[in-house]
Write a structure and sequence with these properties.
Layout: H1 19-34, H2 42-48, H3 52-83, H4 90-124, H5 129-138
């Protein structure tokens, strides 16, 4: 676990085997349930409204991830530049370190937006989370893939189309 993460005290006995797996499954379930929510639900509107809306959001959020990643690169370059100079002011180094850390936090935030909107698109077109996992698993070698991982039947494996 990262130094930026924690498990609430009352939930420490309920830790899932896979944090990302449990989180993606819960998010996919919430998105699926929102299909039947009213128009006050943003997710419902993305699932049932104009098809371009969720697609545009995936593109928009992906661009924001790219820009956020460039901000991380720039912040780290500044930090490396001041850290390597003899006589660098410690306050300046600390300020650039905080800037780099904040840029990473922003990148994580934007990446979560991409994942959410991607899961909305998959739900809209009837691709469940296990089918998506199977696609990812099919792209790994036998050595890389976890034992017992779901896979796609060969007739559903499409590459480059």
């Amino acid at each position: 676990m990262s130094e930026k993460t924690y498990i609430p005290a009352g939930e420490q006995g309920q830790v899932p085997a896979s944090q990302i797996g449990a989180t993606l499954e819960a998010l996919a379930g919430t998105i699926h349930a929102r299909r039947n929510a009213g128009d006050e639900s943003y997710t419902h509107r993305l699932l049932t409204g104009n098809a371009d809306s969720p697609l545009k959001k995936v593109v928009e959020e992906s661009n924001e991830v790219a820009l956020a990643a460039k901000d991380v690169e720039a912040a780290r370059a500044l930090l490396a530049g001041v850290s390597g100079h003899e006589g660098s002011h410690s306050g300046m180094v600390e300020a650039f370190a905080k800037q780099a850390d904040a840029a990473c936090d922003h990148l994580r935030y934007e990446a979560a937006d991409v994942v959410y909107h991607l899961l909305v698109v998959l739900e809209r077109y009837g691709i469940d989370i296990d089918e998506f996992a199977a696609e990812l698993n099919n792209r790994m070698t036998d050595e890389e893939r976890p034992a017992g991982a779901v896979r796609l039947h060969e007739e559903h494996v499409k590459r480059g189309k």
